[in-house]
Transport permease protein
Amino acid sequence: MKTLYRLQAIVTKELTQLKRDRMTFGMVIMIPLIQLMLFGFAINTNIRDIPVGVVDQSQTALSRVLIQTVRATQVVEFTEQFYDVKAAQAAIARGEVRAVLVIPQDVSQRLVRHKTVGLGTPASSDEETSRPVAQWIVDGSDTMIAAAIKGLRAMPLTELLGLPANRMTPTFEVALFYNPEQRTAVNIVPGLVGVILTMTMIMFTSAAIVRERERGNLEMLITTPIRSIELMLGKIIPYMLIGIVQVAIILGLGYSVFNVPINGSLLQLVAATLLFIMASLTLGLVISTIAKSQLQSMQMTIFVLLPSILLSGFMFPYEGMPLAAQYIAEALPATHFMRLIRGVVLRDVEIIDMTYDVTWLAIFTIIGLIVASLRFKKNLG
């Protein structure tokens, strides 16, 4: 009986302490609630409205009907129009579109030939009947996006011409860039860099200020002439070197073990990585100035980490998420780094051509440092 009394006393004490710790109590309730609602709606493998472009070399009524027929599937959404294939390929490399539909100048003749053969007219050659009527140029680095567009290969054309699904049904040709073999590792390994850096960098600095407070070093820092911004910068600089080492390990093993190519410049890769590391470290510092204990800092880190993994495009295509989830994803540094590192590593893009993501990470870092510095001053006061 005495054991039960002592056990009851400890349980009561822990529950009372949890009740008084409002942030921890709130996390216990809010983490599963928010994560369930967010990911339940956001995670969707049925991809719709993939942003694509078109190069219409025909400029005929038939080519416009063909574009509208493809759009009606709701799998893709034509957001850009290009005048030549070279400009379209550059847009794919920059990540502005995920694929481009190239309609040749003689599309009318190709469709008419397929239709007459389908009605019984003999074909002059097998090559003529198997000739595609148009071509998809696809960013094959994302296997789910590529699979969705490959599903459009014949369906719209069969409906357009009213032909049965036989060997003479016209098809699109699908050209997969950057990952023609459709190997999952090509897309996953660069994404892992973002996930691992998010996990480690935020975790390192999220407990930085809290740890100083718990060890009793905060009072010593107050008496030194160091400024708040200098303290924040001093906290993040050592971890920047650790982050670079982690990137080298991941990409090095990815190249040697999984044969994942590094097509871009190493200088561009280092610049993009350092920018993301700084953004992640400053986010950790902001968390550290909010949390009252290391336990709270860990809980808040997990709260940021899960959306960074599931909403950034690492596991599920960004285009498959509803608009509200995309807005949340845009607020996460990991989303912008996923685009940057995949662009540099897989598509050999210069980061200057991805100014939106670079600018966003830079602004996030500056604002994060300012907020962390101001909150640290407030805590000192």
Remarks:
- The first helix runs from residue 2 to 20.
